Structures are given as C-alpha cells and as structure tokens.
Amino acid sequence: MPTSRTLHILVGTVTNTAEYVAQAIELDCADLVDHIEVRLMDDLGPSVFSAGALYIICTSTFGEGDVPDNARALYDALDRPGLRLDGVRYGVIALGDSVYPQTFCNGGRRFDERLASLGAQRVGERLCLDASTEREPEARGAAWCRTWLAEALA
Ligand SMILES: Cc1cc2nc3c(=O)[nH]c(=O)nc-3n(C[C@H](O)[C@H](O)[C@H](O)COP(=O)(O)O)c2cc1C
What we know:
By secondary structure, this protein is of the alpha/beta class. The protein has helices at residues 17-28, 69-77, 106-117, 137-152; strands at residues 6-12, 35-40, 54-59, 89-96, 121-122, 127-130. The model has no long low-confidence stretch (mean pLDDT 96).
C-alpha cells in the first residue's frame, strides 16, 4: 500500500499541457517526497485511490466545461453507488481558459466535487491555470506544488 510519502499525479489532458505540468512537478519536487508517480487517467478506475495516499488531480477542461476524454471513464466510475474514498487526500490543478468564463476550469472543479462527495479530503485550495494569461504553467504548477506539499506533509 502506498504511503503518504508517495505523490500520485493523475493527469487528464487533450493537448498535453497538464501532462507537462505534472512532469515539471515530478522534476522540481523530487526532494520533497520519496517518489512521484505521474499517470495519465486513461484506463484508470477508482481502485487507483488508496486510503492514506496523496494525490494531485491535474486536469484540463474541454467541451462545455467537461473533463477531457481521457479522464471520462475515471470520472464516471467515481459515480459508482456505494463507493467511498475516506482517508484519501488530494489537491487539484485545474487547467482552463478564461475565454470560457461560464465553465472556467470546470474539469478540475468537477473532479474536486466528486472526490469530496465520496469522503476524500482536499488539501489546500485548487490551483487554476488560465491558458489566456499563464505563460509558464509548468513553473507555476511546480511552485504551487512545493507549497502544497509542505501543507500536505505537515
Ligand atoms: C475545444 C476546446 C474547448 C475548451 N473548453 C474549455 C472550457 O469549457 N472551460 C475552460 O476553462 N477551458 C476550456 N478549454 C481550454 C483548455 O482547458 C486549456 O487550453 C487547457 O490548458 C488545455 O490543457 P491540455 O493541453 O492539458 O488539454 C477548451 C479548449 C478547447 C480547445
């Protein structure tokens, strides 16, 4: 069973920005935990979550405020009746674009709301990365994660 010294980053993406952010965290935050595992959400199910372990949901937003296609199966599977994720702790990096003000960063928001409804506990506030204004999403995500890990591991 993974310990809280492993950070699992689950990536939902279409055009790879979220994956680059996750990879930047993997490089930049390696000194803060024993291991960082970056996984695309494709083919993942709810069993990826373990009580006591630490996760970052790093996902963009597509369609009309929806999760990316590669995150759809996992997102839908988290709606399974009776599923509980008590003891799971997570953070959210939500990528979006403020040219879509009605649905800005909704992909991350949707995962956040679903995980919370299952009893998982969010650590810290969501980070929203706006494609219209954020020139260095990787650096911003890695800097956010260093602060976030300090809180998560305290
Ligand atoms: C067709 C399309 C639809 C999008 N819809 C939304 C949206 O509803 N809300 C939002 O905040 N961003 C939306 N975006 C912006 C993406 O989420 C943003 O560009 C993000 O950085 C892409 O990350 P990715 O490369 O990891 O997929 C959309 C982008 C495209 C191309």
